[in-house]
Amino acid sequence: MNAKIISETDAPLMSRKRLDFEINYSGSRTPSKEEVRKAIAAAQKVKEELVVVKHIYPAFGSSKAKVIAHVYNALQDVQKFEPKKKEKKAGTVAEKPKEKKGEK
Predict the structure, then answer these.
(1) Tens of pLDDT along 29-76?
(2) pTM of the predicted model, to two decimals?
(3) 13 vs 51: CA distance, rounded Å
(4) Residue 40: HSE in the Cβ half-sphere, 13 Å Cα cutoff
(5) Does domain 2-90 have CATH number 3.40.190.10?
C-alpha cells in the first residue's frame, strides 16, 4: 500500500492534525481501517493509538482511495474528542467487565 499526503491541516485547540491521504493498493479489495491506520502511523512516525481513520472513499474501477484521518498528540486527546463507540472499535480504550444484576 502506497500512501501520499494530499493535505494536512493543524487543529491546535483539539491537539490533532487532519490528514487527507491518497492510497494506492493492489489487490481486489479496499484496505480495512486497521490496515490504513497502520500505514498512516508508520508514515507519520507515531503510535497507532494516536491515529483515527475517519473515512475511506474508494475510487470506482481503480485501486485508489481517498482517506481522511486524524493524528492526535496524546492518547488523552483521543479519549477526550473521539466518540466512545469508535474508541472501543479502534481499540484505544479498555472495556470494563459488565456487572450482572444482583452482583456487587
Answers:
(1) 889 999 999 999 999 999 999 999 999 999 998 899 999 999 999 999
(2) 0.76
(3) 17
(4) 32
(5) no
